[in-house]
Design a protein that fits this description.
CATH topology of the largest domain: Rossmann fold
Bound molecules: adenosine-5'-diphosphate
Strand content: 15-25%
CATH superfamily of the largest domain: Glycogen Phosphorylase B
Number of domains: 2
Number of strands: 18
CATH architecture of the largest domain: 3-Layer(aba) Sandwich
Largest sheet: 10 strands, mixed
Distance between the termini: 36 Å
CATH class of the largest domain: Alpha Beta
Length: about 500
């Protein structure tokens, strides 16, 4: 599986819980594959290590095979064998770890949500490092993501670097500081890490509750590079509220902390080649967009009498972060203004799921509203392609990908100015921003009135000034949200860190 790399290229290994399109819950999965592809194109050797989930989309893995050798990894005072599978996903070499552990950690029919997630991913993090050690891979960069693989940073420096896996610098990306992997300190012990040594304020001890450790804090302390997914979010998390208690750790380690805006995978999300949509189109011929709009309306049983009736889309996890009450408000506001609304979303929070199920029921035969309460990647493409506007009223948003995808499909975002939305959506009426950057509608306050104002302005332009709308659509479609520039920023961070390590080694 090892691919050639440019002589100056780096060997980068991503260790993660998700990878699009085979094991994706949210943006993390998109980032792992999008960034990896872009780095590979730049001549680096990029490999990925994932759990072997029973529920991943096996059909999109090429040449999947199991290796003859198993890899042993330590857990809870014992050694467990792991089957190692290899395959290719979107041209990227991927290693899958299947633990031969009685708890069947990744054979649960779902990615997350069992009570033992902390243990499962602690096990996986350690096994991934055992795999690197045993296979004699000596990467320049090990890039871990979110709390699930935050364990890697202390495991690497406290255990593995002493066992000969010592070529790498550790990069940790936090995609959302809401999830930190905090647990009672003794829960860390099965990994083999020395709990007493780590349960200290300057190491893994949770800053908000003593007696608990926090693995995201551990990754901030122990990694060489720490990033989050947009410059604005990188600022927001330095405050107590934004950082969810990690603001002090981030301030202490601010010299290695950076905000790099995510890109999107422009091959996957491309209206001119997308096979999941009814008609392909591009910015200088939007006819296909109308065909998609007509198709989806018929498909969902919505009124098709007026093709110019604005169609508003929303694709999201229905969790408080996403401004669930504002999403609900947007639906009623759209109705009031004479538009149509399609929501594709699902919720891990039972009371939110129930609430939206009851709204879905109310509108199940309505001419202008449809709620589809599930995760459906293929259908999401059609909604991006068919909609004229796209709602993202997040309370906080580390980066957000849906605004970028929507723009690429000519669906104009109506977004709250927070986190990555603030770095990628610029209001059509904001004279402080150059006209060529204005690509949507934004609002500041997380309340219904502010959101209504932005929706009303969007509807006014759409209905009263179609030529301005067309221009806006073309501009949004032409925005560059590819990984090219973000991957260059990661490349620079990696290279500087590797160079620093080499200069230490020589001095
Ligand atoms: P987050 O990672 O917080 O969920 P992002 O905006 O970063 O939010 O990424 C969301 C990704 O998940 C996008 O690619 C979006 O299209 C996709 N997505 C979210 N909900 C659904 C759903 N119900 N069906 C299909 N795709 C979804």
């Amino acid at each position: 599986l090892t691919l050639p790399r440019d002589s100056s290229g780096l060997h980068v290994v991503h260790i993660a819980a998700e990878m699009a399109p085979i094991a994706k819950v949210g943006g993390l999965g998109d980032v792992v594959s999008g960034l990896s592809k872009a780095l590979q194109q730049k001549g680096h050797l990029v490999e990925i290590i994932l759990p072997k989930y029973d529920c991943m989309d096996h059909g999109r893995i090429r040449d999947l095979k199991v290796l003859d050798e198993t890899v042993e990894s330590y857990f809870e005072g014992k050694l467990f064998r792991n089957k190692i599978w290899v395959g290719t996903v979107e041209g990227l070499p991927v290693y899958f770890i299947e633990p031969l552990h009685p708890a069947k950690y990744f054979s649960r029919g779902k990615f997350y949500g069992d009570g033992d997630d902390f243990r499962r991913y602690m096990y996986f993090s350690r096994a991934a490092l055992e795999l690197l050690l045993e296979s004699k891979k000596r990467p320049d960069i090990i890039h871990c993501h979110d709390w699930q693989t935050a364990f890697i940073a202390p495991l690497y420096w406290d255990i593995f670097s002493n066992r000969g896996l010592n070529s790498a610098r550790i990069c940790f990306t936090c995609h959302n500081f809401e999830h930190q992997g905090a647990a009672p300190a003794h829960d860390l012990a099965p990994s083999g890490l020395d709990v007493e040594h780590l349960d200290r304020p300057d190491r893994l001890q949770d800053d908000s509750s003593h007696g608990r450790i926090n693995v995201v804090k551990g990754a901030i302390v122990y990694s060489n590079i720490v990033t989050t997914v947009s410059p604005t979010y990188a600022q927001e998390v330095r405050s107590p509220q934004g950082g969810r208690g990690l603001h002090n750790a981030l301030k202490t380690h601010s010299r290695k902390f950076f905000g790099v805006l995510n890109g999107i995978d422009t091959d996957t999300w491309n209206p001119s080649t997308d096979n999941f949509i009814e008609a392909q189109y591009c910015y200088d011929d939007l006819q296909g967009k109308l065909i998609n709009k007509d198709y989806i309306r018929k498909h969902l049983g919505l009124s098709t009498s007026d093709l110019s009736q604005p169609l508003v889309g929303c694709i999201t996890r229905l969790v408080p972060q996403k401004g669930v009450h504002l999403i609900r408000h947007a639906l009623y506001k759209t109705l009031e203004l004479g538009g149509q609304f399609i929501l594709l979303g699902s919720s891990p929070v039972p009371h939110i799921q129930h609430e939206f199920e009851s709204i879905a029921e109310t509108f199940k035969s309505h001419a202008d509203i449809r709620l589809i309460l599930k995760y459906d990647d293929v259908f999401s493409h059609l909604i991006y392609a068919a909609s004229d506007m796209f709602i993202i009223p997040s309370i906080f948003e580390p980066c957000g990908l849906t605004q970028m995808i929507a723009m690429r499909y000519g669906s104009i975002p109506i977004a709250r100015k927070t986190g990555g939305l603030n770095d990628s959506v610029f209001d059509l009426d904001d004279n402080s921003v150059p006209l060529e950057s204005r690509n949507g509608f934004t609002f500041f306050n997380a309340d219904e009135q502010s959101l209504s104002g932005a929706i009303e302005r969007a509807f006014n332009y759409y209905k009263q000034k179609p030529e301005v709308w067309q221009e806006l659509t073309r501009r949004a479609m032409n925005m560059d949200f590819s990984w090219e520039s973000s991957a260059s920023q990661y490349e620079e961070l990696y290279q500087k860190s590797v160079a620093r390590a080499r200069s230490f080694a020589q001095s």
